[in-house]
Amino acid sequence: MPYTDITYEKLSDKIFAAVSSEHRFGTDAFLLADFAAPRHKDRVIDLCAGTGIVSLLMLRDFAPQSVKAVEIQGKAYDLMVLSRSRSGLLNFEPVLGDLKTFREPVPADVITCNPPYYAEGTGKKSADSSLAAAKHELLCDISDVCRSAKKNLKFGGRLCICNRPERLADCVFAMRENGIEPKRLRTVHKTAKDPAWLILLEGRSGGSGFMRIERPLTVYENGEYSEEMKRIYRISE
After folding, report:
1. What is the pLDDT of residues 46-91, one digit of tens each?
2. What is the pTM of this model?
3. DSSP label at residue 124
4. Where are the domains of the chain?
5. Residue 32 to residues 75, 116, 192, 202, 228: CA-CA distances in angstroms?
6. Counting Cβ atoms within 10 Å, is residue 26 exposed (0-12), middle (13-18) or buried (19+)?
7. Which of 10, 34, 226, 237 is the most buried (most CB within 10 A)?
């Protein structure tokens, strides 16, 4: 790994996330990990894993039985390997591969995915190929994500994703097309006065038709992080 731009972000006293100039993470990763909230006994697969930040946060906050993180970009995969080694996480398994062909022998209880948000031909594309692939549906799209989830989820298992509000219809359609019924939706807002900038959506493999819309999550209140965001970010007074 002949990289010269690697640094580590401290997530806890024991867990560290390796990042680079083009492979970093944002608020959406924290929100998705908290939304998915796997149980201790759950086997988890994280698709479009990037630096593995969603996986690392779930391991930190919920301690599932295992997390397998699938990423197609070589440097991002290498960062996950570094994070696993630095953090000593034996139940965290980075996988270098394409989610479109990935197949897990033992179906997962929970699958998470922070996918590329922008459909091909929309949004301003970065000149950096790694950033472009992370933000635009160049290597996979939401239908690919849901097809992979269908193959790798156990019956009754959960798929938890985040995306932009304008992609909600695409996400719901892709889930249903693959036998994953949307069951839970939460919108995320910068402030209570702002429109949603992110959606958190959970589907259940083989689920019946009923979706709960949860109260909005607000990032800022009175000029500072809301109490919920302080909890998610582990900010103490």
Report:
1. 999 999 999 999 999 999 999 999 999 999 999 999 999 999 999 9
2. 0.91
3. P
4. 7-233
5. 23, 14, 20, 10, 14
6. exposed
7. 34
